[in-house]
Amino acid sequence: MGCACMKQQPDQEEMVLLAAQTCFEVSEVEALHELFRKLSSSVVDDGLISKEEFQLGLFRNSKKQSLLADRIFNLFDSKHDGMIDFAEFIRSLSIFHPDAPQEEKIAFTFQLYKTRQTGFIEHEEVKEMVFAFLNESDLILSDDLLEAIIDKTFREVDTKGDGKIDPEEWNEFVSRNPSMLKNMTIPYLKDIGTSFPSFVQRSDPEDDINLG
Q1: Model-level pTM?
Q2: Binned average pLDDT, 10 residues per bin, the chain of 212 residues
Q3: What is the separation of C-alpha 212 from the centre of its chain, rounded to a whole number of angstroms?
């Protein structure tokens, strides 16, 4: 039965199409297929990346619970079918390419924080993601200090003062704070190998807290 579910290897036409739609050259798409093949066969060899395989690639531990990994997986999984196919993988990785438009990176970070289907980033969503970033960095802050930092930052972003952050406010905030996007660029993608790129790059704790 497993063989019946196997995804066929993309042909040259699909490789060329994906290159045209992304920041990658055809040869780079071909190289990334080897990385995709390794990831998609790390638990079940079915030609698709499951959430377990995605976390295994990120953390070398498929059992570790991570809101950050869940959010990135869900954004890669554009069809929302619980699996990442090769086209989804390439299009999503392209956003992290050094040559990808800044607008794409800003839109991705907005979706990263927008954990609910409201079209806005709400205070509780910011709090959840900041806690997730802190857990990844093992940084410990008191609840009072953390709340004060989140409240101050949220007020700075929410220029309309309506208790929520819309895409326009987010775009303005990120444009004023370009360090927000430093983890949205993976230099590795200009020199593609076959190891999984790190989305959880260690950054300055202050940047992490400041929604970055």
Answers
A1: 0.80
A2: 55 93 93 91 93 83 72 94 96 95 94 87 87 74 84 92 95 91 85 56 40 44
A3: 13
